Amino acid sequence: MFSRLQRSGLMLGVQYEGDSIKITPVGLITRNAATRFKEFVVTLFESGHYQIKVDLSQVKQIDGHGLAVLTWMTVRANEREGQVTISNPLPQVRRLMLAVQAHFMLEVSDYELVAS
Description:
Blueprint: E1 2-4, E2 11-17, E3 20-29, H1 31-46, E4 51-55, E5 59-62, H2 64-79, E6 83-87, H3 91-99, E7 106-108, E8 112-115
Parallel strand pairs: 3-4, 3-5, 4-6
Antiparallel strand pairs: 1-2, 2-3, 6-8, 7-8
Helix pairs in contact: 1-2
């Protein structure tokens, strides 16, 4: 199921996989989209979903706002004994994550970035 986040240009694919939810953002996670993405994740957390997989294979660009949402998700999920797993970032997204040292918050492996 894909849904477009209002006025952000970002689409989200959402799949339920047992106890976890897989989110596949499509497009850019920049300022406005990051705000809408966070609002969507808040609804998941309010529903008790703290096991979240984020597949970034369709995200062509992410900025500091988008990285802040991923970091916030990680902290919030960990507070509730959950986990956020970030996988398949495109090379330009991976480079930004490494450049801003997101690997201190996210464990970086060859194919996934796993939030610790």
